[in-house]
Specification:
10 helices, three-stranded antiparallel sheet, single chain, globular, alpha/beta, Rossmann fold, about 280 residues
Length: about 280
């Protein structure tokens, strides 16, 4: 896909419009920045849940470019709501082939993108080069301790953090809080318990399944409800939380999806969010 075609396809990427903030779940005073436990073998424990080789094989052999290279409408809405002048530094955590990293880059943001799959990261490197975009990339899992703390204005993690147990999901959210600047924005998605994959496959823990009906069958998913999200996000201020639902073609079968979309800020603050709204 050429830069010109991509830009035509993704019209309206310029920053504009409000974030649509509304009252939510306030951060508790005194909450500390909590990251992965010191000394934890993060790479090993993550691979026990989802083998990196599974995704290496998937990305090497994938045949659905329109699906994986087209940015999600919700992410394009997010890009339009933010200003690269006020929030320049973006982290795409678990970037896959890089569709959202590319979209942020085209909109003028400074982008860092990480993924555990070297195949996926290499695809993004070539794609960015073809569009003459400068995107910092690294092969790393979502709990990588080498990312600079307190350095990102925006962290995006689209369909990533729920791969594993609830504990890992919560640890990843806490880790993102440490990577964000004060008042930084965090947007992520995860499946609800209405999703078509819920309840299928081996149950490893409450609401945690080795899914038979996943894009990569056998990977582990945790399915959250609203109370779960309230607890896991107690270190953030809510901006917006909503559901997207519909059907997708899973190897010839029509399968229902139901995903949480979560937009939060690291803490209550005025300056950056006022600037996003033009205030």
């Amino acid at each position: 896909m050429t830069r010109a075609n991509y830009c035509i396809h993704q019209t309206g990427l310029a920053a504009s419009g409000p974030l649509g903030a509304r009252p939510g779940w306030a951060r508790r005073a005194g909450d500390a920045c909590v990251g992965p436990p010191e000394g934890a073998d993060l790479g090993r424990s993550w691979r026990l849940i989802l083998s990196t080789e599974t995704w290496e094989t998937y990305w090497r052999d994938y045949r659905s470019p329109d699906w994986w290279e087209k940015p999600a409408p919700e992410v394009l809405d997010l890009i339009r709501s933010l200003s690269p002048e006020h929030r320049p530094n973006v982290l795409d955590l678990g970037c896959g082939l890089g569709r959202h990293a590319i979209a942020f880059g085209l909109a003028g943001f400074s982008v860092t993108a990480t993924d555990a799959s070297s195949e996926a990261v290499q695809h993004l490197v070539h794609w960015a080069r073809s569009l003459q975009l400068s995107i910092q990339t690294r092969v790393a899992d979502v709990l990588d301790r080498t990312l600079p703390r307190g350095s990102f204005d925006v962290v995006l993690s689209y369909n990533v953090l729920y791969h594993g147990t609830r504990e890992r999901f919560m640890t990843a959210i806490e880790h993102v809080g440490c990577l964000l600047k004060p008042d930084g924005i965090f947007y992520f998605t995860c499946p609800s318990r209405e999703d078509g994959k819920y309840g299928f496959g081996e149950q490893l823990a409450p609401h945690t399944y080795k899914c038979d009906k996943s894009v990569t069958p056998g990977d582990v998913h945790y399915f959250a409800d609203e109370c779960d999200l309230d607890e896991m996000l107690r270190g953030f201020d809510s901006i917006r939380r909503w559901m997207t639902e519909g059907y997708w073609d899973n190897r010839g079968s029509r399968q229902f999806y139901s995903n949480w979309n979560v937009l939060v800020a690291k803490k209550a603050g005025r300056t950056a969010r006022q600037q996003d709204r033009g205030g």
